Amino acid sequence: MLRPFSFLSLLFISSAAIAQTDTASVRTEIIEEVSVTGGVKTRRMAGAVNGLRIGQEELFRAACCNLGESFTTNPSVDVSYSDAATGAKQIRLLGLSGTYVQMLAETLPVFRGAAQPFALGYVPGTWMKAINVSKGAASVKNGYESLTGQIDIDYLKTDDEPSAHVNIFADQMQRIQVDADINRQLTSSLSTALLVHYGMGQEDSDHNGDGFIDSPKQRQYNISSRWKLRLPRYIMHAGASAIVDSRRSGQYGSNITDPYRTGISAHHYEGYMKHAFIIDPSHNSNIALMANAAMHLSDNVYGRSDWRSYDVNQKNVYAQLMYESDLTDRHSISTGVSFSHDYLSQHVRIKPLSPRQELDESENVFGAYAQYTYTLGTKLTLMAGIRGDHSDMHGTFVTPRAHVKLSPAQWLSIRLSAGKGYRTVHALAENNNLLASGRTFEVGKLSQEEAWNYGGSLAFIIPLGERSLKLNTDYYYTHFIQQAVIDYDSDPTAISIHNLHGRSFSHVWQVDATCEVVDGLELTAAYRRNDVRCTYGESLLSKPLTNRYKALFCVGYKTPLELWQADVTLQLNGGGRLPGGMGSFHSYPQLSAQLTRRFRYIDISVGGENLTGYRQHMPIIDAAHPWSPSFEPTLIYGPIEGAMGYVQLRIKI
Amino acid sequence: MKKILFLSALMFLAATLPAKTLKKVTLYTGTQMHCQKCEKKVTENLRYVTGIKSIKADAPSQTITIVYDADKTTTDAMLKSLAKIKYTAEVKEVVDIKDEK
Fold first, then answer.
1. Would B3 be classed as within a structural domain?
2. Where residue B90 sits, what CATH number does that domain have?
3. Domain with A209 in it: what CATH number?
4. CB A600 to CB B48 under 8 A?
5. A615, A642 in Cβ contact below 8 A?
6. Does B36 touch chain A (CB under 8 A)?
7. Which of A36, A37, A561 sits opposite B47 (nearest CB)?
């Protein structure tokens, strides 16, 4: 097992030995220069990939404590609890699990494997400048993993206008969060930012009377230091971050002799650096190296430490060397090589009261890619890429991807995409929360996941007098060749994760429209239909716990000087199937609202979430017998907590 | 009858409201304001000055056009507010928009 010392050595070697460059850095610079001026609301990203950039203004329209709470007003992304025991939240894009969405931080892959189940809670909302969400096959530059899309977090910039903020959030569930950020230009070329976070929730209320507390007692410390050096022909980004997160949940009543409790204690450390050498600014030619390394330590207990447990010590290293250039006004290329290392040292007690098993997983992947882009003004963008990778676990595989954007008129953009993706499954690291279930837990020998994704979108800007209606519609089809299937259906007494035997696919169609009807008043309406199916046993069934549809209606009003802002969001989540012949769940509404008053040195927001008060009936099945095989806290389809009010203060120093 | 009562109440309210003297000032910033980021910075600074009704910062012409209630604020207050973000500006033009009850 690698020790922290050797891990740090590995970080140093990986980032220093591969030498001196970074492409994403340069690209990020270029993207920044285009997008920073473009306002801070949600807007469609330029380029051939179908993407949205969710800016700070959009993020602050609702309680935005962390990344997981940043999609309240976004119709494409769903966020829900994974289970009623750990407070882990999962994201869904194109109707499929968050594991198929590649998580990036400023184009570098982050929160992989064991860090993934809680990743949405690891990025405080006020640390983010924007979130870039892209649907469908992504560029081959960032690897082969994004099967359904990418979420790329843009943190607050070191070289933005110098500022300092303190954000204080408190809700009626006694959850308190304090965030602070400061950035300074130290010299004309060197700038830095420091981001800190403390969050805690210690309430042990049990509103549904099942004997289990509704939300975990949680404490998190999070710190990130970020640096940027900008010289005429050289740009460097570097930084390090640390997260300490603990969650306790389960039975906290005083009269229980042998309480069932879950405990998750995680430490996450990460470092990154990106170097970019600009060779020819007139052609955007640059050579770049980016690298990051992360260590994630987690001790997870389900029931008691001798009942079921999972401990992991995970290390990831990623490095990429790239060359990019605009050959002419119309032709540009990007090419590069990459290396990825994942190592997981795991100790797991799958069967209650049995001895712990030691399971080590390790994968090294070397890859190379080339991508060509043809741009004909604003009318046409063609992007075609191919990458080849060799994994010491799965052998050699090829990833082709292609995108087209056609804008025959200013009011119409057509995007088409097709591409393949792959993913190595770390079944226990990504799904160990399922150990909270009383069922037996089985993990088969899993192949690499492999899928094709095809999609298209139409974006219209329809003039309505002096204003315009933005209307978008998109359709995506994901077809798995190989998949790790989480199966509750074949055996009602077991959860098994096994290779796909049959078919697995998702069809997702969405339409959304946004219009500013009068000055300051913006309306958004969206509807999405999901058809996600997979073969369980011998039957092709709808994926359990997945909404058949989602409807969203947002109203936002700002006074002319934006000193007052009010936002109301209503979601209707369609019903779906419960596994193992348990029937189905019905549709349910969720209402959230927020009112903000901005003063020169402070913004004050008051709001409420889930104001319709809908709560899943019996989120824990057989909660009275937690040590029995029928105990089941992992079948969650709706909110566990009821209506919640909050106050948020954002102090500008 | 209800309509008459409502209209009477509205007229009474209008008659008792304090007078508002709306003016429009154009401030010239020079090259300090040269991009959309600058426009945003200027707007976000001036919006907290009491009495300002609307702000339009325009980097290409290097001007800020402000509609304000002259009974509540002055152009000096605006220049002082800009000084907080190290901007200097000169008053190019002040015009009365209208005197209204």
1. no
2. 3.30.70.100
3. 2.40.170.20
4. yes
5. yes
6. yes
7. A561
